[in-house]
Amino acid sequence: MDTYSEVVCTKLYDRKTPITAADLVNDRVIPLFENHDAKLMRMLTDRGSEFCGNPERHEYELYLAVEDIDHTRTRAKSPPAATCTSKRFNRPGSSVRPPSAAASS
């Protein structure tokens, strides 16, 4: 979820792992930014094991390093600001629409 532009990239996986987290960024997020001539510079994530680990061995951390993307984590034991934003995406009648719906309007 990009809280500035209010765009959400999704993909369905059957597990939460560092590889699937990196795959989502590689398959959906980076191409979206490239299509708009923008560079993804920073990712804000929670401290889940799929996002955080030893930077020398953790697949997600390694992927961000290869792509030269800074990784920022939310503070421990504090609710992330993105929670409020995600509630806007999920409520009925939300003005936020999927990119395909927004493009056809």
List the helices and strands and how they pair.
Elements: H1 18-35, E1 42-45, H2 59-66, E2 70-73, H3 82-90, H4 99-104
Parallel strand pairs: 1-2
Describe the structure.
This protein has 105 residues and is mainly α. It has one domain (18-92). It has helices at residues 18-35, 59-66, 82-90, 99-104; strands spanning 42-45, 70-73. A two-stranded parallel ribbon has the order 1-2. Helix 1 runs parallel beside helix 2. It is globular.
Domains (count): 1
What characterizes the major β-sheet? 2 strands, parallel
Question: Total number of β-strand segments?
Answer: 2
Based on CA inertia axes, which overall geometry fits? globular
Order of helices and strands: HEHEHH
Tell me the Rg in angstroms: 15 Å
Mean pLDDT metric: 79
Key attributes of the depicted protein:
two-stranded parallel ribbon, 4 helices, mainly alpha, 105 residues, 2 strands
Provide a concise account of the structure shown.
This protein has 105 residues and is mostly helical. Helices cover 39% and strands 8% of the residues.
